[in-house]
Amino acid sequence: MSDKRNRCGGSVMGGFWFAGWLFTIGFAQLVWWKVILGLVVWPYYLAVVLR
After folding, report:
1. φ, ψ (nearest 5 deg) of residue 29
2. Burial letters 27-40, b for 16+ CB under 10 A, else e
3. Distance between the two ends of the chain, CA-based, in angstroms?
4. Separation of CA 35 from chain center
5. What is the pLDDT of residue 31?
6. Segment 16-30, tens digit of pLDDT
7. Contact 30, 38 (CB under 8 A)
8. Domain positions in the chain
9. pTM for the whole structure
């Protein structure tokens, strides 16, 4: 039962992350190449910090 609950929580948190990322792009008024750079580079730095 806890396995099912964990999968649901992950998808909800993934949705919040994606919505927050889209909000950040709109709020910062980033140009398209910075958006792509952020999509590629940001997860790497986040993984390094959280490791």
Report:
1. 55, 50
2. eeeeeeeeeeeeee
3. 28
4. 12
5. 86
6. 878 887 888 888 887
7. yes
8. 2-50
9. 0.48
